[in-house]
């Protein structure tokens, strides 16, 4: 995997970051979960999904029996966008070589939320239409399976999103690990 240097300035997100947020978990896993961008806690700790969304993700993973340490977890961008806004296209494009290097050679990639699904699949429609459908995407010239699903924060007030995310996690455990 290639990583941005600690002084990376490929986009404007570098201006407000505390830390680069690099992948965590099993870096050799056949499964990668990709979120949209680091939040405040992630920026402070330099690890993905360690804030409220991470707590929710951990809870659902535990409920289905999936050990977080068996998958790799990353984001489309490595720096926190201001005010936790969604990353912009140029920001995702700046980080894409790093993301591609993380995704290459995997069995399946799970897109957590709209920004990840848009960046990886190019889809901009309603999430409900594609959640838990197996897709094929191209990563550095190689086709790989891709499953779009809801971001953990989307499950806070929506039971259907909660159940769909758990279904995704069960699928990961049963079919890919």
* Run of helices and strands: EEHHEHEHEEH
What general outline do the C-alpha atoms trace? globular
* Neighbour order of strands in the largest sheet: 1-3-2-4-6-5
Described by its quaternary structure, the protein is single chain
Percent in helix? 25-40%
Instruction: Quickly count the helices.
Output: 5
Distance between the termini: 21 Å
What portion of the residues fall into strands of 2 or more residues?
A: 15-25%
Q: Give the total of beta strands.
A: 6
Low-confidence stretches: none
Overall pLDDT level: 96
Structural class: alpha/beta
- Give a quick account of the main beta sheet: strands, pairing sense, barrel closure: 6 strands, mixed
Radius of gyration: 15 Å
Please characterize this protein's 3D structure:
This protein has 177 residues and is α/β, with parallel strands linked by helices. Helices cover 34% and strands 16% of the residues. It has helices at 40-45, 52-64, 89-103, 114-121, 159-176, and strands at 24-25, 31-35, 72-75, 108-112, 135-139, 142-149. It has a six-stranded mixed β-sheet. It is globular and about 40 Å long. The two termini are 21 Å apart. The model has no long low-confidence stretch (mean pLDDT 96).
């Amino acid at each position: 995997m290639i990583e941005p240097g600690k002084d990376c300035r490929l986009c404007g997100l570098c201006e407000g970051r505390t830390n680069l947020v690099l992948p965590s978990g099993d870096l050799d896993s056949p499964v990668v979960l990709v979120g949209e961008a680091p939040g405040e806690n992630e920026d402070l700790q330099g690890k993905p999904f360690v804030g409220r969304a991470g707590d929710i993700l951990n809870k659902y993973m535990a409920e289905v029996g999936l050990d977080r340490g068996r998958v790799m977890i990353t984001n489309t961008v490595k720096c926190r966008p201001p005010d936790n806004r969604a990353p912009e296209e140029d920001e995702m494009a700046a980080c894409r070589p790093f993301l591609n290097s993380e995704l290459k050679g995997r069995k399946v990639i799970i897109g957590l939320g709209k920004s990840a699904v848009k960046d990886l699949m190019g889809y901009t429609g309603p999430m409900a239409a594609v959640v838990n459908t197996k897709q094929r995407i191209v990563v550095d010239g190689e086709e790989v399976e891709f499953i779009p699903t809801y971001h953990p924060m989307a499950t806070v007030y929506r039971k259907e999103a909660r159940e769909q995310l758990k279904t995704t996690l069960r699928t990961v455990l049963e079919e890919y690990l």
